[in-house]
């Protein structure tokens, strides 16, 4: 079976985790501190706070800004639902904006109209652009709009470690940038996440919120906020540090592998290919099938041929909770709905060989022809 994705775990990873396990320091510790420093260096930002997941990173980002009841937050309609769940969890209301069929990112030409048309009682406080599948969102336009309407920008860079916009790492444009180290993402710590920040005071608040509301003072600790336990464990950080060292190499491999798919698949007009955007880190390679195909039937057929594929991400307005609560209909955000229903994520990870990608491509083309 050619898997959709597979984390690269080698002997070095096993060794460093074993050493931390034997050290006895299992919760937050020195490996976490070093991982934070190395991530900040990699991203070229002031500070990084490692946490238990990207969902925790998004949640803390909203809590630290005091976003909650009575507030609204702009979110792209096509993403993994953790983006919008974080907004709901703090009691704020999401405002969805459709995405582009080329990049799968928020359609920046639709944001301002959405802000102007907003008649809800909630006040729009923030925008969470998602760098979907590693494709950098149009940050100059997003920052311009945020500036004009006094909105905070919280970047969901869960899929986008290593992605760049105009030569600058994504996740460092907004007030915070949230990353995931889930095994499906660029580098993994099992579960895990990180928050990139450029503001020392905000970094301190995030660290306090991450760790039960504890502030370290001269004579010990005090509890200054009702905090969470969103810490990363020390062995996870050791794993992450080892992965980060190898990451630039993996990124280059991924950039080359996506070209192989592109070359193999460009002849066919049964689907759209994702746009080859500068600075894309290719966490996922998703194509969008023509309406005439039953995507789920294609997934089953490919599985019989030992190729694992899947849908890419969700259209939030098509999900039960959001549909029931906000009364969305599927037509409200047509591009997101189309990507949700017709998107097909192909096997993609740095351990795949060019031959395997060619094999998958040939298989795909013959399955498409069969279903034509
Ligand atoms: C994976 C993902 C998340 C959630 O990350 P976790 O670390 O699993 O919490 C959030 N947003 C997007 C866009 C993702 O792809």
Features:
single chain, 7-stranded mixed beta sheet, 12 helices, alpha/beta, 17% strand, binds pyridoxal-5'-phosphate, 372 residues
Description:
This protein is of the alpha/beta class and 372 residues long. Helices cover 40% and strands 17% of the residues. The strands form five sheets. A seven-stranded mixed beta sheet has the order 1-10-9-6-5-2-4, with helices on both faces. It has a three-stranded antiparallel beta sheet with strand order 13-14-16. A hairpin with a 2-residue loop joins strand 11 (214-217) and strand 12 (220-223). Helix 2 (30-43) runs parallel beside helix 8 and helix 8 (234-265) crosses helix 12. It is globular, with a radius of gyration of 21 Å. 49% of the residues are buried. Bound molecules: pyridoxal-5'-phosphate (PLP). Pyridoxal-5'-phosphate is lined by residues 53-55, 79-80, 82-83, 130, 156, 158-159, 180, 182, 193.
Structural class: alpha/beta
Q: Return residue spans where pLDDT drops below 50 for at least 5 consecutive residues.
A: none
Helix tally?
12
- Helical proportion, percent range: 40-55%
The radius of gyration is 21 Å
Query: What is the averaged pLDDT score?
Result: 97
Can you count the beta strands?
Answer: 16
The molecules bound to the chains, other than polymers, are: pyridoxal-5'-phosphate
């Amino acid at each position: 079976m050619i898997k959709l994705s597979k984390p690269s775990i080698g002997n070095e990873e096993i060794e460093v985790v074993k050493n931390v396990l034997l050290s006895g320091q299992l919760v937050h510790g020195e490996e976490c501190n070093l991982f934070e420093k190395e991530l900040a260096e990699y991203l070229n930002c002031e500070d990084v706070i490692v946490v238990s997941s990207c969902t925790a990173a998004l949640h803390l980002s909203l809590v630290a800004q005091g976003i909650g009841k009575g507030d609204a937050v702009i979110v792209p309609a096509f993403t993994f639902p953790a983006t919008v769940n974080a907004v709901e969890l703090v009691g704020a209301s999401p405002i969805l904006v459709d995405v582009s069929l080329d990049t799968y990112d928020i359609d920046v030409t639709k944001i301002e109209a959405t802000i102007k048309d907003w008649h809800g009682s909630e006040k729009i406080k923030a925008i969470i652009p998602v760098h979907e599948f590693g494709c950098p969102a149009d940050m100059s336009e997003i920052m311009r709009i945020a500036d004009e309407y006094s909105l905070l920008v919280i970047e969901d860079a869960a899929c986008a470690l290593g992605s760049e916009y105009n030569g600058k790492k994504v996740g460092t444009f907004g007030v915070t940038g949230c990353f995931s180290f889930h095994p499906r993402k660029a580098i993994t710590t099992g579960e895990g996440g990180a928050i990139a920040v450029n503001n020392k005071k905000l970094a301190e608040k995030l660290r306090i919120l991450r760790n039960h509301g504890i502030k370290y003072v001269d004579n010990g600790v005090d509890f200054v906020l009702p905090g969470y336990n969103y810490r990363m464990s020390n062995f996870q950080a050791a794993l992450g540090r080892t992965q980060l060292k190898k990451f630039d190499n993996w990124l280059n491999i991924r950039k080359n592998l996506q070209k192989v798919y592109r070359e193999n698949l460009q002849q066919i007009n049964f689907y759209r290919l994702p746009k080859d955007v500068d600075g894309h880190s290719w966490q996922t390679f998703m194509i969008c099938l023509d309406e005439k195909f039953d995507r789920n039937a294609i997934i089953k057929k490919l599985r019989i041929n030992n190729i694992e594929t899947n849908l890419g991400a969700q259209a939030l307005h098509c999900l039960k909770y959001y549909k029931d609560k906000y009364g969305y209909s599927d037509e409200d955000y047509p591009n997101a709905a189309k990507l949700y229903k017709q998107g097909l994520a192909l096997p993609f990870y740095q351990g795949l060989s060019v031959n395997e990608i060619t094999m998958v491509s040939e298989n795909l083309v013959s399955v498409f022809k069969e279903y034509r």
